[in-house]
Amino acid sequence: MSQNKQALVFGASGITGWAIAKEALTYPSPTTFTRVVGLTSRPLNVEESGLPQDSRLRLHAGLDLSKDAKSTIAYLRAIPDIESTTHVYFAAYVHLGWGASDSDSQVRENVQFVTSAVTAIEAVCPKLEFFTFSTGGKWYGFEFGDKVKRVTPLKESAPRIPPPFGDHIFYYQQIDALEDLNRGKKWKFADIRPDAIVGFVPNHNAMNIAEPIALYCALWKSFESSVEIPFPGTTETYITLHSDVSQDVVARMHIFASLHPDTTGGEAFNVADADMSSSWEAVWPGITSYFGLRGVGPSPDGKLAGEPWVRSKSAKWEQWMQENKVKDKVLDSTCWGFMTIVANDYATFDRTFDLSKARSIGFDERADHVQSYHTAFDRMRDAKIIPAS
């Protein structure tokens, strides 16, 4: 493995890519990478990103993997010293919705993303050693709920979800494409699989559960006299187990895997905050305490909570955003539907992950799940996504 390592992060403004760009500056040590290059689709400078002010970090906008490999090659070649890249972290994707809706387009576009990226990387990065790839709970068919069978705790060796549901899981075809592209090559790759990721992004992200929860709590604090804030799901989903994870832990898993190619090459690894799964009942009170609220179970039938309650206050959104000096249109842009799905459809079944494979190779990073939310909320306050107090 080379001594001078350069990290290249695809999707550096997303919930996983942002964290990888941040963690690569210090994990496992401040000298691991000589340079960290983050690629984004939309313009984003380091000052606005919330990332550390570090001379080794560079962000480059204009990434468009929907174009052919030639376009991606030209884009990468315009980046100074791109040929020194040794480690690539791929956290870019197209999200068109959950389930089977328009899945043919979603599968096709996401396969195009990884194919274009790898083809371009091989053309311009001759020192490539390792490529990590982000999958997740979709691999286990979470978007199809109880329509598919699964055995918990979920292991990486679990068989793929068969057709017809498996046909809609774009991760399968992406990994197949990645394996084909990797065949006979010196570089190696690993698949990193988190459940729902708790974290911060400088712009909005459809897969960020912490942001709608934070804004739900902030709005409740402003508009309701009661400090008791109901869980935005059902009695059933309040007690079901899941294995969510901090974006920082996910990022470290990506980096750890890339630095241990002999044990991780060609493998998949689950990642979560803790070995034991948890329930919303166990963490909701702690999550909401950040806002001086007391998290309680789901509302009685007929009483608004969660996304319906938030939308019932939409006439007051503009004034609230101005008074609290948060980012313009933050309430309009937040993916409220993801909170609803994660607290409802995604929580009707056990989502416990088995972490023994990651532990067996020496990855022992853990996080207190409530603190993971509080860390994300701190970052949101700094970015003026939620009120300062």
TrEMBL record:
Domain PRISE-like Rossmann-fold: 7-387
InterPro entries the record matches: NAD(P)-bd_dom_sf, PRISE-like_Rossmann-fold
Record field: transmembrane: none
Protein name per its UniProtKB record: PRISE-like Rossmann-fold domain-containing protein
Species: Elasticomyces elasticus
